[in-house]
Amino acid sequence: MHVMIHLRFLSGADVDDLAITDAEVIAAVESVVGAHGRGETVFEPRTHLVPDNGGAGHFNILRGHVSTLGEHGLSGVKVVGDFVPNYLRGLPSELALMTVYDPTTGVPLAIMDATLITEVRTGAMTAVGAKYLARPDAKVLGHVGARGTAFANVTMLDSLFPLAEIRVTSRRPESRDAFAARLREVTTTPVRAVATADEAYDQADILVEASRLEKPIPLLRTASVRPGAFVVPYGTVSAVELDLLDVMDKVVVDDWRESRSGRFGALRAHVDTGRLTEESLYAEIGEIVSGAKPGRETPDERILFWHRGLSILDVALAHLILTRAEAAGTGTMLRYR
């Protein structure tokens, strides 16, 4: 017996047409983070493919399964390129492709442009972390980095907190000015483009480091972290000082096994030198979202959240997109076999 199999292809335009909101993205990410805390997910740490391309960029491969999605759960694989010089060609620095599968048969269900998923899921993870770890009265957001995930970081945080000022910066003046202008189109919160990271972080309540460095440079300085601050460093290449963790009351990660893997990450040197260990770690964010551990307990706590990007977030958002696309009849059905 031969069974004909079709799968759904969703282009970037198809995904955009679904008009999925930030609130829906944050809710999906918060739900899957809670599932991770309850042991209802399966995933492997990301792997890297570094082509012989003169250092132009590399690929990340993420694989995950979420048992709570749909009747049988959903499995997926995402390949995302990380090519910082792409802006010179008018291309996003991160382009991604996602495939999702029926975990009971292995049948592929969909192929989709996952560039939007990559952008918004990172911002949503920042927002979910802030929801549990930042002071609810946070007023000043300092953000370093203007491409890729930066827009979702800022807009999603802006939707959750009564911000009085947003400060943004990046290496190129034209980049930070354009980013600030784009933000002003969607928020009434005052947005200021500043020349340096020190200016962005001065007296900030929420400090996000999303830089695109080629080599380690301490942009987020330990002295900038005041009592009560919530700090999120997640650039691929470290932009923090080695003594940053010395002033933190709590250090939270998305997944400790993921934190130990690979050659990249904001706190890679801290893990490699033993400054961050399983014993010194306060919690994984899933433990906090699921209620197993408390998040912020006092207004003066300095809390750092390091998230490297979990494949289960991609799977959760792919499920949201696929479900919406099926209901709307969006996409192109392709014969697989």
TrEMBL record:
Q: Which Pfam families has this protein been placed in?
A: OCD_Mu_crystall
Specify the signal sequence span: none
* UniProt protein name: Ornithine cyclodeaminase
Source species, please? Paractinoplanes durhamensis
